[in-house]
Every structure is written in C-alpha cells, then in structure tokens.
Design goal:
Rossmann fold, single chain, 31% helix, 327 residues, binds iron/sulfur cluster, 12 strands
C-alpha cells in the first residue's frame, strides 16, 4: 500500500475558555478531539458535518494556521505538527488553502496580479517579468481574462473572486489543497462551474484535496472518500459511493436524509432525521457524543465512547464507523 500524502493521527485542537479575575483556563472548547484521517496522493477526501462540528478547525490545524494541542500531522513523510513558522515556510509551498469567502480572504487593496503573484514574492521565486507571465498563465487556467491582472477583487463577482483564490492557491503547484467550504457562499449555478474547475485542475496537476463542506451532496460530487465529523470526532469514513449508498452511522444517514431528493424511493429513513442542535463542544455528551440526538441510543452509548471500527461490509475498501452497534 502507498504511503498517504497526509496522515493525521489522534489530532486534538482545544481552545481554552478563560474566566475568573486571573482569566485562567476554566475549561476547554474541544473543537477537534482525537481525529485520525489520511489523504492519498491525487485523491479528494470530503469532510462533512454541521457547522460547529470542528471540520474547519481541523483544516486550519492541518495547514498550521492553528496550533494542534496534541497529535501528529505527517505531510509527505515529515511530521509538521510542531514545526516553527520558519521551519514551515518551505512546506507551505506544498500545502495551500482555498477559503469560503474569497471577498474576505483576498486583500482588497491589492490588484489581482499582486494577489496571485504574492506567493512567488513570499518564496523569492522568479523575476517580476517572469511572475507577471506566470500570473497571466494562472488567470487563463482558472478561466479569467488577461485584463483581470490590473483590476481589484471588488470588481469581480463571487464566482470570479473564488477563481482568483484558486489561482493563488495553485500558483506554486502545491501537492495538497485544503478547501474550506469553497462553494458555500456561491449561487448554485456558479457552484458547479467552480467544482468542475477544481476537478479539471486536480486532473492536470495531480492535486490532492481535503474538501470541507456542510453539504453532503456537494461533497459526494467531488470526493473519492468521505469522512463524517460530529462534535470534534469522526463518525464514519469510507468510499464516497458506499457512504452514500450504505451509510452505517445514524448521523450520516440523517445528513443523507436531509438532502433534497425528488425520487421518494431514495429518501432517507425518517428515524434518522436529526433532532435538536449540536451540543456545546465545551461540555460534550459522555460516551458516544451523538447519543443526545440518536434515535438508537442505549445505556452503553451514554457510558462508553465507541471506537472507529471497520464495518462488516468493508471487504474491498476501508469503511469505518464509530458506533457500538451494527444498525
Ligand atoms: Fe447512536 Fe449509540 Fe451508535 Fe452512538 S453508539 S451512534 S448513540 S447507537
């Protein structure tokens, strides 16, 4: 078996909740609480969950925009979990990020040419003439006109701004891109154009994506495998088609049941429709963190946290679920 490009082992990202006169940490927001995932070279791992489940925090910790509390991030054979900012600089060429809101993530005072050319400047690559030539090539690759180079991000639509964000992310030909809800802020008609662009670039450049989103329908369209996250934990992970066709975890089934489906025979089971809100990650439920919303919960679920285990159906590909029972 090939070594994964990215391996995340038992990663925890806790944020202190401070209080009292001395503002000491009184508790912790356990945004990511022991996550293990991997991404193979050239594949897309979709990471899905409701807002507040920790998926964006996990993405930001992987690119080291956030410091992990515990655990390991192995990228391309190197443990990058504890590297300093200067030690991370060469690694940053190979791991890039696409953000949800390109309007916010792009500096509005810089021209598109300066924004896309900035990664070359940061890494001291190429002469100004050569950078300009590369920026023009990148504009062409993402479907923007050459005259965009001297204009400003606010002159473009949301979809075009996301194309600028993508051009910036692929500028240094990275190996892995963390895509944090890259189409959530866009109209449905524009979403598919951006997704198709990302798929084309992946094929051309052998990119790997960790595709973070709350919309399982969008994630299924682009992913080879899917991981379902809830309250800082992975609930289920496996081949995208298999997860969609034969989900084992009640939370996954509830997410699938929530996808608008015109064919009644393909609608989810009513028992797995989600009730209530996601509990606070500051005081998560004991045992299985999903037990407060699970229609199948039993006393064991309150007392014991289930491990992520291989399901009975995982003969050809790995399909894991974090549930005590075969439901
Ligand atoms: Fe539901 Fe229990 Fe399984 Fe958790 S372990 S998903 S509460 S049945």
């Amino acid at each position: 078996m090939n070594t994964p490009l990215l391996e995340v082992n038992d990663l925890k990202v806790y944020f202190p909740v401070k209080g009292g006169i001395l503002m000491r940490a009184k508790n912790y927001n356990k945004a990511v609480d022991g996550v293990s995932i991997h991404v193979n070279a050239g594949e897309t791992l979709g990471l899905v969950g409701e807002s507040g489940c920790g998926k964006s925090t996990l993405g930001k910790a992987i690119v080291r925009l956030l410091k992990p509390t515990e655990g390991q991030i192995i990228f391309d054979g190197n443990d990058i979990s504890t590297l300093s900012a200067s030690e991370l600089k060469p690694i940053r060429r190979d791991i890039q990020m696409i953000f949800q809101d390109p309007g916010e993530s792009l500096n509005s005072r810089l021209t598109v040419g300066a924004l896309i050319g900035e990664p070359f400047e940061i890494h001291n690559l190429d002469s100004p003439e050569s950078r300009r030539r590369k920026v023009l090539e990148l504009l062409d690759q993402v479907g923007l006109p050459a005259n965009a180079i001297d204009r400003y991000p606010f002159e473009f639509s949301g979809g075009q701004r996301q194309r600028i964000g993508i051009a910036r992310a692929i500028a240094l030909e990275p190996k892995l891109i963390i895509c944090d809800e890259p189409v959530s802020a866009l109209d449905v008609s524009i979403q598919s154009q951006i997704l198709n662009l990302m798929l084309n670039l992946q094929q051309k450049m052998q990119l790997s994506y960790l595709f973070v989103a709350h919309d399982l329908a969008v994630v299924k369209h682009v992913s080879d495998r899917i991981a379902i996250m809830y309250l800082g934990h992975i609930m289920e992970i496996g081949d995208a088609d298999e997860i969609y066709r034969d989900a084992k975890h009640p939370y996954t089934r509830a997410l699938i049941a929530a996808i608008p489906e015109p064919d009644p025979s393909r609608r989810g089971r009513t028992k797995d429709v989600l009730q209530g809100d996601v509990p606070s990650p500051i005081d998560p439920p004991t045992g299985c963190v999903f037990h407060t919303r699970c229609a199948h919960a039993r006393p064991q679920c309150v007392a014991e946290q289930p491990n992520l285990r291989e399901t009975a159906s995982s003969e050809l590909t790995s399909h894991k679920v974090a549930c005590h029972f075969d439901l």
